[in-house]
Amino acid sequence: MKKRIGLIAVVMMAVFVAACGSESASTGFEAPAEPIDGGEFESPTELDVVDQDALVSRTEDSSFPLPQLVDRKIIRTATLELEVEVVGAAVQEVESIAVAAGGFVSRSSVFIEEPPELGEEDDVAPRRTQTATVTIRVPAEVYASVMSQLRGIAEEVKSEISEASEVTEEYTDLQARLRNLEATEAGYLELLTKAEEIADILIVQDRINQVRLEIEQVQGRMNLLDSLTDLATITVQLTLPEAPAEEPDGEQGWAAEAWDAAWGGSQDAMVALGTVGIVGGVVLAWLAIPALVALAAWRLFGPRRSRGGEAGGTGTTV
Prior knowledge:
single chain; alpha+beta; elongated; Alpha-Beta Plaits; 5 strands; 318 residues
């Protein structure tokens, strides 16, 4: 029983030491580097980023070599929209450029849109539209060269977007965390060889499994960052040039513009005259009814009064 209690105490002490080691490692990384006399660097501003391995080894051995600069981890991505004469041929050129640069095509898609059916009033059949999207991965060191080659295959570069994200700090933190986890795992493995009872073995094995899971997670993230920083990602969108507008037949220039203006003005005048004629016809239709009534009344009563007047005058004279 005393051995078991002692073993558990040792396990807890190992966990505490590992946690303290993690804090000291991160604190040591943030501390400024000590000045170096007679070295290659003349000012401390050139030592912006110090290798984490060198700092860790300094705590273990005072006679360490000069610190080395950590390689910067930068994720580069770009998107190009290019106008090309033939989409299919341009897709093959993009793939050839990627392979020649030591990269590969990660995704490629071609879209073809059929034109609508030709109508009776259409003189020229619309052409088929075709677009393509190609995503390539190329080594980061040839990123600028590949971008220049891709611009060269285009009739016109419609748009270009480039992005760069630095993940050096995250990668360095992952390295320090991985070393601490590996040291903790080594301590647990050593304790596992000294455990005698089954309960103690199970406790230590459970701790080892937890640490191993964290190691795999950290290692997976580091592998992903390595892949993203070692290879730049470029997405190329290929489209056909826009079809030119159809020019009307006949004489061009100011005479054609004057003719179009005169023709348009005459059409407006005809519309105005037609409107006046229609309005006048409607008004006359409404006036025709009372006019007919008045004419009928005059014909019925007007001539009789005239005859009656003439008859009365003749009788008086006689």
